Amino acid sequence: LEPSAKPAAGTRASDPSVLESPYFRVELNPATGEVVSITDRRTHRVLLNRKNGGHAGTLMLNSSVYAESGPAQRVVLHRERGPVVDQVVITRPGSLWPQTIISLPQAEPMVRFTEVLDRSRMRFVANSKPHDLYSFAFDFSVQGKVEHWVDDGEGLYRFPEDLLPGAHKDAVVPQHTLVWSDHTGSAPYNIMLAQKQPFFDRLRSQAGTSAAGSSDGALVDVMVKQDQSETRDQGITTFKTYEPGYPTTYNFSFALTGEPGTVDPIAAHRFGVEDESDFAELPPHHAPSSWTASMLSLSVPNVVLETLKPSADGDPDDFLLRLREIAGKPTELSLKFPLPLRSIVETTMTEDRILRSPIQANAIRLSPYQTITLRLSV
C-alpha cells in the first residue's frame, strides 16, 4: 500500500463530475451524467468533446439519443476515489437505463464503461410493428482523415479497404478491438475501443412472442460524418434478442484507450483479450504453493496461443498446441513447456496427418499471419 496522490489543483476529491488518472481526465455533466469530454493528459489531446456532438457510452434508441419519457429524470452521481481506481457510479432511478459505471484505473491507460439496461422497463412493441433498437454510441474527435482498423483475432486489417469483393462493408462484429487511427500532423495517435464481455448480444424491445430464430447478428456501425470543423467517427454496438426466462437486467462493458504513435497490432490484440481470463477466488486462510507460474511461454509477443488441449490421437502424453502470428511478419520463436518434451511435430489442424518432423522447441518458424498446429509429446 502507498499513500494516494494529492488531488490535482482545482479538483475536489468529492467532485463527482471529474475523474482523473495519470493518463486520462473525464468530465461529466453533473445534472445528466453525460460525458462532456475525455482528454489524454499525456498529450493534452481531446478524444471526445460533447460540445461537438461527441458521445461516450451514450444510450441510443433507434439511432437517436435516449430520452426518458414523462417528468424529468433524476440522475445521481456517486464518486469513489482511491489509489487503485477513480470511479463514478451514475444512477437513474426508475429508468430502463438504471446505471452506468465509469472507471479510470490509476496504473493503466484505460477508461472503462459498464452499462446496465433493464428490459422490464422497455416499452412493449407488438410483433407486427418495427422493434425498438437499443445501442451505445462512441463518437471520437479527430482532425482530418482517419483510418479504421479492426482486430478480429487474426491480426489488424483496414476497414473497409482490406475487405474482399462482395464482403459487407457497412458493419463489423465487435469481437475484438476497433481502432481509429489519426496520422495527420507530426503526432500520430490512435484510439482503441473493445467490448469486454460476450459479444453476440442484440437487445430489442419486448414483443408478444419470442424472437427465437432471429438471424440478426452483433454489429458495429462505423460511420463518418463531416461538418465544418472536424470529422466525427462513430461506432455503435447493437445487441441480439434474448430468450424468455433470462434475467431482465443486462450488463454491457466497454474499454477505451488512446495511445500516441502508429497502430500497433500487438497492443490492439492484447487490449481486446486481456480481460478474458477466468479467475478463481481462494477460500480464506488458503494460499497457492506458488503465486506465479507459467504453463507455457513464447519468446515473442507477436505470436499468440490459440489452443492448448489433449491431442486427438488419444495418447495421454500428447498435447495439441495451436499458435498464430498476428503482426504480419515472418517469425522464429522459442517455446518453453513445464514438462520435458520428447518431440514436436507439425500436423494438419485436424491432426490426421504430420506435415513436418521433427521441430526444435527453440526454432519454431511461422510465416506472416500463419496459424500452425503442433503436437507436443512429453
Q: Helix count, per DSSP?
A: 1
Strand order of the largest sheet: 7-8-9-10-19-16-15-12-13
* Total beta-strand segments: 28
SSE topology string: EEEEEEEEEEEEEEEEEEEHEEEEEEEEE
Structural class: mainly beta
Weakly predicted, low-confidence segments? 199-204, 207-243
Portion of residues in beta strands equals: 35-45%
Helix content percent band: under 10%
Q: Note the gap between the termini.
A: 43 Å
Radius of gyration equals 24 Å
General shape: globular
Average predicted local confidence, pLDDT: 79
Q: Biggest sheet: strands, sense, closure? A: 9 strands, antiparallel
Report what the structure shows.
There is one protein chain. With 378 residues, this protein is an all-beta fold. The chain has 1 helix and 28 strands. The chain has one helix spanning 265-273, and strands spanning 18-20, 24-28, 35-40, 45-49, 56-61, 64-65, 76-81, 85-91, 99-105, 111-118, 134-142, 146-151, 156-158, 171-172, 177-182, 189-195, 220-226, 231-238, 249-260, 297-298, 303-310, 318-325, 331-333, 335-336, 343-347, 354-356, 364-366, 371-377. The strands form 6 sheets. Strands 7-8-9-10-19-16-15-12-13 form a 9-stranded antiparallel beta sheet, covered by helices on one side. Strand 1 (18-20) and strand 2 (24-28) form a beta hairpin. The longest helix has 9 residues, at 265-273. It is globular, with a radius of gyration of 24 Å. It starts with 17 loop residues before the first strand and ends with a strand. Residues 199-204 and 207-243 have low confidence and may be disordered.
